[in-house]
Amino acid sequence: MIGWLRRRKTDDLRPTYAERQAALERARERLRRQQSAESRRRAWLRIGLPGCAALAFLAGLALSDRVAARGAAARPELFVVQRLEIEGAQRLDAAALARAVLPEGAPEPMELAEIASRLEAHPWIAHVAVARVAPSAVVARIEEQEPAALACAVGEARLLVNAQGVAFAEAEGAEWDSLPRLVVASPPPRDRRDPLLAQGIALARAVSEAGFSGIELSLDGEDPNALPALRVQGVDARIVLGAGDPAQKLAKLVQLLARDRSHDREDQSSDPAGQALRAMPSDPAGQALRAMQAREIDLRFEEQVVLRPVVAPELGNDGPTSGADAPGSATGVPAPRRATGDRPGESRRSPEQRKG
Questions:
Q1: What is the helix (H) or strand (E) element at residue 277, kind and residue range?
Q2: CB 80, CB 136: distance < 8 Å
Q3: Which CATH number is associated with domain 80-144?
Q4: Please, are residues 200 and 219 in contact by the beta-carbon 8 Å criterion?
Q5: Which of 51, 64, 73, 278 has its CA at 20 to 30 Å from residue 45's CA atom?
Q6: HSE on the CB side for 10, CA within 13 Å?
Q7: Per-residue pLDDT at 260
């Protein structure tokens, strides 16, 4: 009875289960083909078409250069550069620069390479890109030098130095006084990277990031062990950095000056009686020297900061002499002064005591 009910009638037109599964699989395959074709079309529009356009543009440029070269060889009078436009000029006058490179009524045609070389010969121009936009018109895109410091040698003109350590032009006027000053023994070469100046640029950048201004760095001199040496605005002492990483040394300097300024504020805020008590030495050697009163701050040692005091001038036969403290004398670590004034090999006793 049950088998008779399950038998399919001959006039039943409904699809079977297998036919429905086959139709569903064909629909899925058709949808996958449509999605694949759509993704290929999007990829072509996103990547293929711009790439083909770029290749066509480059091929057109190469072909145009050949055509222009052949045309210039056949009819050179048609390709004489009569108009030069300068782009990217900030400090320089673009019109004056174009007139200097391409004077009016030039008798002979000028190649693009010659225009670029003339522009690059200017001390304030770092890079040049030249392109012909018409048979008689050329556009030059320039990149100007960016001064990063001043190179100062005794008796010589100050030179502007870029971030790569290349001295490129003289510093005229007071416009560049705020730049860090790199003191060197001899004038650096022009238009060539100087490793000493590059080192000074990096060190001046670190000092500026530490919060100091009015930076002056002595990079070479008679005592290489006491170099580089630093002077900054607001601190009269000469700061000896020495070789090595300056980060920890500058951090110690910032901490030392901050503590020194805090002591000064405490002294100013107290009463006169307290100031008098603090001015009295607490031990025979006197109070510790403060950084703001020192002649030299030596940061070459890892565990400590050495403060060297200002030594009073000694009286000699020819008048007062100050020795290593005289302005313009050679720098370095002077010999310690004896507090008693005795000479080496002499006793502190008087002649009468020595006889007795």
A1: helix 272-279
A2: yes
A3: 3.10.20.310
A4: yes
A5: 64
A6: 0
A7: 74
